[in-house]
Amino acid sequence: METFSASIGWFATAVVVASYFCKGERTLRAVQFIGAAMWMTYGVVINSAPVVAANVLVMAAAAWTARPKRTIKTGGG
Q1: pTM score, two decimals?
Q2: pLDDT averaged over consecutive 10-residue blocks of the chain (77 residues)?
């Protein structure tokens, strides 16, 4: 089981490092989300609540900031 969990951790590390090379904002957020999901999975496998919680928050932040921006129309005829 150690090898499996270590593999998840190393792959998650590679994804997070790769996110630093993303050019577009949406691509960056998607890669961050995937990396956090992998770290969350790693946290579940090693039974670490802090790792799971931290990466649930990162996933939520990545998803929130990746959503399409809404423009507010102001009146003014």
Answers
A1: 0.81
A2: 88 96 92 95 97 96 85 71
